[in-house]
Amino acid sequence: MTDFAALQAAVLKGNRNDVKDIVQQAIDNQEDINAILDRGMIPAMREIGERFSRNEAYVPELLIAARAMQAGLTLLEPLIAASGRKTLGKVAVGTVKGDLHDIGKNLVAIMLKGAGYDVLDLGVNCDIGKFEEAVAQGASILACSSLLTTTMPYMKEVVEHFKGRKVKIIIGGAPVTQDYADEIGADGYGEDANGAVKIVDKLFQEA
Ligand code: B1M
User: 140 CA distance to ligand 1 centroid (A)?
Assistant: First the structure.
């Protein structure tokens, strides 16, 4: 029987070795993969995200938890692929054209993955072509990150490019605000990585 509380605690503390051991044991005991994710790892990543939003956890703790989560996911990934587990939806995450900052974008990608979404990480310096490729690969939400006031206007170009299409555009990054998202007609704004998960949850629920 898998100790899901211990698995959650190990992810929260970022204890990579414990996560690997518990997940491997669970696999050996033919535990349901969905249970490992939904009762162990995903709630722990959501909890660390909530703590981060409340300033009770900081970037290093988030990264350490994410690394532990990734260690467990690496063991599960082949089984997930073989089982055909349905993810909650496909989201593409990219830092917009001209901008090379990727730490925040990476956190957003990790938190979305941790929350159960299928994430396409488009990297940095993403032009509209890259976002188009993501849509062609099935992404229904595009999460754009910008850290520079000089690259923020590119988000407006992305929004305008996809206007009238089924895809939703959400934006975030240190200089970005809800007001700016409203001004350019984006479908949502995430203040931080956890905020990005919340807006993605909301948009998929509404879809
Ligand atoms: Co740059 N940089 N930088 N930089 N850099 C800033 C952003 C700056 C504020 C520093 C400053 O002057 N005080 C300033 C921007 C000023 C402005 O535009 N008003 C700046 C500048 C000017 C520059 C260069 C132009 C410097 C130069 O070369 N003259 C240059 C630009 C390069 C380029 O992109 N073309 C540059 C370069 C760099 C480094 C390469 C050295 C490095 C980036 C390394 C990397 O990312 N791999 C760097 C860094 C590290 C920073 C600071 C210090 C830290 C950014 C960071 O990683 N924060 C930054 C100063 C600062 O922000 N205090 C600065 C931690 C990260 C977790 O937070 O990215 O905000 P953040 O992400 C958050 C939220 O914003 C949100 O969630 C994340 C988690 O909470 N979020 C989203 C982010 N994306 C989201 C997407 C979403 C939702 C939420 O989608 C829905």
Answer: 26
Residue identifier of the C-alpha nearest atom 26 of ligand 1: 148
What are the domain boundaries of the chain?
4-83, 90-206
Strands 90-96 and 141-145 come out as: parallel
Q: Distance between CA atoms of 145 and 152, rounded to whole angstroms? A: 8
Q: Which CATH class is domain 4-83?
A: mainly alpha
- Arithmetic mean of pLDDT, 35-57: 91
Q: Specify the ligand 1 atom closest to the Cα of 199.
A: 91
Side chain identity at residue 78, one-letter code: P
Q: Tens digits of per-residue pLDDT, 84-105?
A: 677 789 999 999 999 999 988 9
- Give 159-168 pLDDT, tens digit per residue: 999 999 999 9
Q: How confident is the model over 66-73, as a mean pLDDT?
A: 90
Rounded to an integer, what distance in angstroms lies between the CA atom of residue 32 and that of residue 28?
Answer: 11
Q: Whose CA is nearest to atom 70 of ligand 1?
A: 174
Residue 160, phi then psi, degrees to nearest 5: -65, -40
Helical (H) or strand (E) element with 141: strand 141-145
Q: E strands within 16-117?
A: 90-96
Which residues line the pocket of ligand 1, CB cutoff 6 A? 59, 98-105, 107-108, 143, 145, 147-149, 170-175, 190, 192-193, 196
Q: Quick one: how far is CA 197 from the chain centroid?
A: 6
Evaluate whether the domain defined by 90-206 bears CATH number 3.30.750.24: no
